[in-house]
Amino acid sequence: MIPYGKQNITEEDIQAVAKALKGDFLTQGPTILEFEKAFAEYIGCNYAVAVSNGTAALHLSALALGVGNGDKVITTPITFAASANCVRYCGGEVVFSDIDPDTYLLDIEKVEQLLRSSPKGTYKGIVPVDFAGRAVNLEAFRKLADEYGLWIIEDACHAPGGYFTDSKGQKQNCGNGNYADLAIFSFHPVKHIATGEGGMITTNDEKLYKKLLELRTHGITRDTTIFKNSVEFAVGQPVNEGDSYPGWYMEMQTLGYNYRFTDFQAALGISQLSRANQGIERRKAIASKYNTAFTGRDYVNGQSGYVDGHAYHLYVIEVEDRVGLYNYLREHKIFAQIHYIPCHLMPYYRDLGWKENDMPLAEQYYKHCISLPMYPTLTDEEQSFVIEKINQYYAKQQS
C-alpha cells in the first residue's frame, strides 16, 4: 500500500518518548518548553506555544485576536475546514475569497477587491493558508492588511520549513512572525513533524504570547504580579503586611480551554524536528521527479510544480477524469487523496448562504485535483510505480 502521506517513526523517536514516559512529567513539564524553544528557533520567531492540535491553535489564535460575534474574517475555500471554523467558534462570520488557479493560494487581488467594495472596518482579519506547503507572500498581504486595519493568522500547517522571498530578496520562513500576527502549525501524522496530534502557535508579539499561554490552560494564571484577589483571601485568614500568596494559589481570570500538549509528545516532536531539514530535502526531490514526469503531459491541466520555498506537504496534479484515475490507483494499492472539497460548499456553510459558483476558480480546481503520494520515506521505486500507473491509465483512455 502506498498512501498519500505517512509518518516516519525511528528508533530515536521511540527512545525519546520512552525517556519522557520514565520522567517526572507527562504533561506541563519542561520538555514542552524545550520543544517550543527549538521550534521557535527552527522557524525563526520569538515565541512558540504548543497546543493539543492544529485546530486548537487556530481557535486560540482567533480568541487571542479578539474575534467576536459578527466579526468578518476572510479566508480561502481550498483548505481544511478548521481554517474557517476557528472564526465560527468565536461567533465570527467567515467570508470566503477565491484562489489563484496558478498557485492554489488565496488570491490577494480578489481579497483587495473584496475590501475595496466594503466600508473600512467591515472586516477584522485574514487567514491565508500555505496550501500544500507553498508559502503565501505575506509581505504583500501585510501591506494590504495594514491599509485596512486587519490582523493576519497564517495557517502554515502544511509548511514548516517553507518560505517566500520578500521584496528585498530575503527569505521569510513560514510562521516567522515578521508579517503575520500569529501563525499556526499541525503535528498530525501526515505532516512534516508528527507527534500523533499536536499543534503550535508562533508569534513575535509578547502580549499575544502571554494571552495564548493563559487561554491554553483554562484561563488560569499563577503570575502573582497580576492576581486580582487579595493575599488575605488566598490564604483564608488575616495576614501581615508583606505576606505573599500561598504556593497553591492560582486564578482563573478569563474563560480558557484545556488545549495543553504533553511531555511525551514534545519529546517526539524534538526528535522529529532534528530531521526536519532532511525531510524537506527528500520532499523536494520527490516533487522534482513528479514535475519532470508530468510536464508536457496532455492529460495534466496543472500541477504543484517545482517552486522555490515550497515545503511540499502535498503534490497536486489537475487531471481530466479525476474519479477514474483515483479509482484506478486504488485498484493498484495507491491511495491518493483529494485536497480539498471547497469549504464554502460543505453543508454547514451552504446553510449559511454559500452556494455553487460563488468561488468558481476553487470549484473548478476541485473537479480536477488529486494529491499524489508525498512523504520522505516514499522510495524511488514506489514513486516510479505511481507515475507508471498514472501514465498507464491515461494511455488506456486514449487507446
From TrEMBL:
<dbReference type="InterPro" id="IPR015424">
    <property type="entry name" value="PyrdxlP-dep_Trfase"/>
</dbReference>
<keyword id="KW-0663">Pyridoxal phosphate</keyword>
<protein>
    <recommendedName>
        <fullName>UDP-4-amino-4,6-dideoxy-N-acetyl-beta-L-altrosamine transaminase</fullName>
    </recommendedName>
</protein>
<feature type="active site" description="Proton acceptor">
    <location>
        <position position="191"/>
    </location>
</feature>
<feature type="modified residue" description="N6-(pyridoxal phosphate)lysine">
    <location>
        <position position="191"/>
    </location>
</feature>
<dbReference type="Pfam" id="PF01041">
    <property type="entry name" value="DegT_DnrJ_EryC1"/>
</dbReference>
<dbReference type="GO" id="GO:0000271">
    <property type="term" value="P:polysaccharide biosynthetic process"/>
</dbReference>
<dbReference type="GO" id="GO:0008483">
    <property type="term" value="F:transaminase activity"/>
</dbReference>
<dbReference type="InterPro" id="IPR015422">
    <property type="entry name" value="PyrdxlP-dep_Trfase_small"/>
</dbReference>
<dbReference type="InterPro" id="IPR020026">
    <property type="entry name" value="PseC"/>
</dbReference>
<dbReference type="InterPro" id="IPR015421">
    <property type="entry name" value="PyrdxlP-dep_Trfase_major"/>
</dbReference>
<dbReference type="GO" id="GO:0030170">
    <property type="term" value="F:pyridoxal phosphate binding"/>
</dbReference>
<dbReference type="InterPro" id="IPR000653">
    <property type="entry name" value="DegT/StrS_aminotransferase"/>
</dbReference>
<comment type="similarity">
    <text>Belongs to the DegT/DnrJ/EryC1 family.</text>
</comment>
